[in-house]
Amino acid sequence: MSEKFDVIVVGAGPSGNAAAYTLAKAGLKVLQLERGEYPGSKNVQGAILYADALERIIPDFRDSAPLERHVIEQRMWVMDERSFVGGHYRSEDFNKEPYNRYTIIRARFDKWFSDQVQKVGALVICEMTVKALLRNEQGRVIGVEVEREDGKIYADAVILADGVNSLVATQGGLRQDIQASNVALAVKEMIFLPRETVEARFNLSGQAGVVIELMGSISEGMVGTGFLYTNKDSLAIGIGCMLSDMKAQRTTPTELLERMKAHPAIAPLIAGGETREYAAHLIPEGGYKALPQLYGDGWLMVGDSAGFVNAVHREGSNLAMTTGRLAAETLIELFQNGNEPSAANLARYKAKLDDSFVMKDLKKYRNITDTLDKQRQFIGDYPNLLNQAAHTFLTVDGQDKQSKEKEIMAAFRERRSLFGLLGDAYRLWRATR
Amino acid sequence: MAEPKTAKPIKKRKVKLDENLLAYRGVWVFIESERGHVHPVSWELMGQGRQLADQLGVELCGVVMGAPGPTLEAQCVSAFHYGADRCYRVASPVLADYRNVPFTRALTDLVNAYKPEILMLGATTLGRDLAGSVATTLKTGLTADCTELAIDPEDRCLLSTRPTFGGSLLCTIATLNYRPQMATVRHRVMQMPVPQPERSGLVVDFEPALVETDIITKILEFIPDEMRDKPQLPYAEIIVSGGKGLGKGENFRLVWDLASVLGAEVGASRAAIHAGWIDADRQVGQTGKTVRPALYIAAGISGAIQHRVGMEGADCIIALNNDPNAPIFDFAHYAIVGDCTQILPALTRTFGAYLGKTQKEAA
Amino acid sequence: MHIVVCIKQVPDSTHIRVHPVTNTIMRQGVPAIINPYDLFAIEEALRLKDRLGCTVTVITMGPPQAEPALRKALSLGCDDAVLVTDKIFSGADTLATSYVLASAIRMLHKETPVDIVFTGKQTIDGDTAQVGPGIAKRLDMELLTYVSRISQVDLATRRIIVERRAEGGVQVLETRLPALITMLEGSNELRFASTPNMFRAARATVRLWDRTSAGIEDLKLVGLKGSPTVVSRVFGPTPRAEKAKQIPFDPAAPDAAAAALLEQILAESPRVQEELAHRRQPGVRD
User: Fold this and answer.
1) Do the domain assignments include residue B227?
2) Which residues of chain C are under the pLDDT cut of 70?
3) What residues 23-82 of chain A have any CB closer than 8 A to a CB of chain C?
4) Which residue, A53, B345, C21, C30, is the most exposed by fewest CB within 10 angstroms?
5) Which residues of B123-143 are buried (b: 16+ CB within 10 A; e: fewer)?
6) How do residues A88-136 score in pLDDT, each as one tens digit?
7) Per residue in B165-174, pLDDT tens?
8) What is the pTM of this model?
């Protein structure tokens, strides 16, 4: 291919689309290559759209993007076998435009996003798998090679947005192979219910929606969380756990999800629905410590390829879009000033990341996965203790309240010892500082 | 609780036939033969045609086409044995071997001359080649690969049922204000009727206006298939079939083991063929072979319609599947829910003991 | 030389399921694909292009969503693509479809004379195999169905020799162009699109033809109006009145289930008992 582009974006997920859109909008000649049959065909997500991240790329996205419900209530449930202790936050402020978060259906959203990318002038070609980066004699990346005849395509810079499994990055030596302790394996189902049923069960009206984050016994001792989101006439339900844990415990994700769906607090919410879709995906969980080299001579890495996921808050797509945009802005500034995309110049990308919530949040939570992994009591004991405590406290059976409190404290001390309890508090504080 | 939605019945359009179409009477079956042999599907259609003709109170006619001679005459006699009242004999040297243009011309001229209301052909390579051309020439409706044919008592119309949506559903199709109503049916879908040698009928000769020099396509040669060890699925009395539920290609071996002990043919679902576990000519189903065995054992087959229509004529269907909700359990006679890789060897041992065969001997 | 290939975009039937309770079709997110049988037609046309140097136009009658199917054909190497699309064409059965495609091909013939039309053997959603023969009849082209091999094409004498699958063997046929050929599945192997062709396809303009551009003369012959056949009912099969007899299966004792099954079918199915009796070795005791 003798034709040359300013930038090649590998991947048409949220990070790739964010980058391609920003670049093309600024007038650069952009080629976006996606290995799936259509943009988003390889993507799986709950899914939540973070309006702020998208607004900074397409300010008027609300006019045309396919959105399910805007989130007005967040529930956090700590589950035990037959119960849960939960906290809810619901606010009428979240019900006022412009809305802050939406539930979306990825297949539809990705198609819309890609249409916008093409509208601003990027050339998007699907069923093109990039097998390697092309480098010149000095080692600078000067393009990509695809798995088709005559497959060398040249560009001044390449943005790697090809997801958690990024073969290009791994094979190109830019990144290590995925470690089982750095990824979670997540599965999700789409369960269809009539709109009225969704609204009745979750106390909603209009286009408002609910997000439920679940943890505790549902992950059966493994580090992981579950979720349930409301779409217009469907529910997205799923669970993900550390791959290393799943392997050690020899549980299949399907079995895990089936048991979660059968939990007495969850089953009634999905009863009568029709499962029409099932998907599985890997989610990067390594966080700050697992970040690879993010840029080099002629290349930048964005999104899941680089592991930009906030495991604690379950945020991934906003980091994807933000890093995609920041990478694009770095290149736009460089080209506009007539500078070349050398590693030294591209360090600007890292500076932008450091300045943004992306690096700040990742740094803040850099120890959490490790802590949870090594301190299993957070996943195993505490949900159970909390639930027990709540049960004791809320059962009115003639026992005086003082004794009840003592009983609860005794249960905690017995399980964790006083020393352990203090230690846990300290560890949790350290891990999230 | 989601409201159960039943499939919406489509409002049937009232068929009001034009004057000239009312003259179309009679049920015709095209009797297909190549190199002298009548394809058995033609007799199966004759059996079905007899039922339709009786319901309509009209004649059942066979149509034989080929080179003049005793073969054609013998075919007419067979047609009567299988139920025809009348047999149109279209003889010409130009029709010695099948070619699209002369056969289409001759058959359409015959139809225009004698006006049948129903014309059926076998859904073979010849039948499909011919039917499409004839239907377009006559500008009439054609329904292919029908699994069921019936007469609507209200308006005497032919109702053709066939699989649709890739074989996941069935649909009934009617031909509106057009005649003849054409249908093709695959081999072994209809039952072979018992011939009645005492029956006879009327032979009507029809002279086709065909001139060899007018026909552009010539047959240079015919290369017969080698008499390889071809599976005789359509006629097997016991069949063991495997599907995607077996999990891995290697597990298909368990199907072969059971089949060899039972002296059975091996079949497969479309999914197993696509997975490359077994040859395409063992496919049972809408786009594969139709079978009517005494015993059909389906291992790891979900039972989608496109497979079902190929084997539901079996006397005894045993379904083995890990999924208790598999559609095959809706029409099987016996059901075992469990892991096929465990059930199949158990059946092999048990049936083997009963038949006095071990796998080694049966090979 | 100019070749036209007719294709159809169909739902990927492997993804369609029927809901066991409501009997409705679950078509959620069923991807659309090029009818698999048509791929052999496209490949054969492209092989002739490689051999003899000619232009290949791919055409389909369908809704606007059918465009990606044409682009895929372009990416494989076809030169030009035409989407014949008009609301009035919807609801067409095979007779109405062949009328529209034949009209469109006549228009293409006016631009550049058409020598061969290829179609796939049949579609996976209709299965009728009637459109190819229908087009041939309308355009007065020689029809060659179930072709497994094109042995010779002589443009000077307009002769073509093909091998055609028939019952029990292969017919070797010779005829004169123009001809309509339906390709047998498995007759060739589809090529993998090259990068330049992928680019060309991504940038190409697919021609959109409505009833006027397609040269439709009689609107009564298109779409639902022009269809002699109509679907009067779509339904799931009725489950048998008698439910299947469940044989309980215990993985710890698999032979017990097998024995129970054998006992039942011997008792209840005389034909099966007969068949098994034929196969019993002499002297085997019960």
Assistant:
1) no
2) 13-30, 285-286
3) 37
4) C21
5) bbbbbbbbbbbbbbbbebbbb
6) 999 999 999 999 999 999 988 999 999 999 999 999 999 999 999 999 9
7) 666 678 899 9
8) 0.83
CATH of the domain at B75: 3.40.50.620
How are beta strands A30-33 and C17-18 bridged, if at all?
Answer: unpaired
pLDDT per residue as tens digits for the range A43-93: 888 899 999 999 999 999 999 999 999 999 999 999 999 999 999 999 999
Closest B-chain CA to C16? B168
Query: Contact at 8 Å (CB) between B32 and B186?
Result: no
What's the gap between Cα B47 and its chain centre?
Answer: 13
What are the φ and ψ backbone dihedral angles of C228, each rounded to 5 degrees?
A: -65, -30
Quote the pLDDT of residue A179.
Answer: 87
CB B4 within 8 A of CB B92: no
Alpha helices (runs of H) in A26-98, residue ranges in sequence order: 51-55
Kindly list the structural domains of chain C, giving each domain's residue range(s) and its CATH number in brackets, ordered by start: 2-221 (3.40.50.620), 240-286 (no CATH)
At a CB cut-off of 8 Å and minimum separation 6, what does A378 contact?
A371, A372, A424, A428
Q: Are A301 and A11 in contact (CB under 8 A)?
A: no
Residue type at A229 in one-letter notation: Y
Under DSSP, the state recorded for A288 is G
Touching partners of B (3+ C-beta pairs < 8 Å): A, C
A124 and C29: CB-CB below 8 Å?
no
Give the residues across from C161 on adjacent strands.
C152, C174
- Asked if B71 and B200 sit in the same domain, the reply is yes
| Chain C residue closest in CA terms to A31 | C199
* Cβ-based contacts of B1 with chain A (< 8 Å): 197, 271-272
pLDDT band for B230, please (50, 70, 90 cuts).
Answer: low
From C23's Cα to the closest Cα of chain A, the distance in A is 13
Average pLDDT for chain B: 89
